[in-house]
Design goal:
2 domains; mainly alpha; 213 residues; 0% strand; Tetracycline Repressor, domain 2
């Protein structure tokens, strides 16, 4: 039989994660509704029904809250499970047919771009008056390129790339049409639906990255 102390730790851990998730969700809603600068730590604490001290202890500052909101948007929740350990990406890695693989991959990428669109708008609207957010954008771009590199490696492992296309060129090509700016241009300026963007992305990857017939 587990001791009282042993059984208490899992409950505390769950409460800790639940509190963190609630704070991140509250911050995200306020960032989107009010903007980054007008949102205060006090407002986040009130919306999350926690003390101001709790928010500071867990996140230290508002920028870290924004980072946490972006991280949660990328994977779809606040659970500490990396993107590449998620079932959708595991399915991409397990698929042996490259054409089907890019379809699955397009769904993953399009989903990330849809989920992160609100926080990308928050960052874009605040960066002109909050120079420190340039570092958030730079880190987001670095992480996206790293992720795209891993996606390209999945394609290389399942059948290689188009003749003459280097790994670096493939990453740059993928990054050109699978980024927040292109997604926003097509879905906002050109009126693409989420499904149309996903299909366009899949066709683009198929034609520009995979070996020709």
């Amino acid at each position: 039989m587990a001791s009282k102390t042993q059984s208490t730790y899992p409950r505390r851990s769950r409460r800790t994660e639940q509190t963190r998730s609630r704070i991140v969700a509250a911050a995200g809603c306020l960032f989107v509704d009010r903007g980054y600068l007008p949102t205060t730590i006090e407002a986040v604490a009130q919306a999350a029904d926690v003390s101001v001290e709790t928010v500071y202890v867990r996140f230290r500052n508002k920028r870290n809250l924004l980072d946490a909101y972006l991280d949660a948007a990328i994977v779809g929740d606040a659970d500490p499970v990396p993107l590449f350990d998620r079932p959708a990406v595991r399915a991409v890695a397990a698929e042996s047919d490259q054409h089907r693989q890019v379809q699955l991959l397009a769904a993953v990428i399009a989903g990330v771009l849809v989920r992160t669109a609100p926080v990308q708008r928050v960052i874009a609207g605040a960066v002109a008056v909050a120079p420190d957010l340039d570092e958030v954008l730079a880190e987001d771009d670095r992480r996206r390129r790293e992720t795209h590199g891993a996606f390209v490696d999945l394609l290389r492992a399942s059948g290689g790339l188009r003749k003459g296309l280097t790994r670096t060129d493939a990453i740059d090509t993928l990054s050109a049409f699978a980024n927040p700016e292109t997604h926003r241009f097509l879905t906002v300026r050109r009126g693409f639906s989420a499904w149309r963007y996903e299909r366009w992305l899949a066709r683009s990857m198929d034609r520009l990255l995979l070996p020709g017939d």
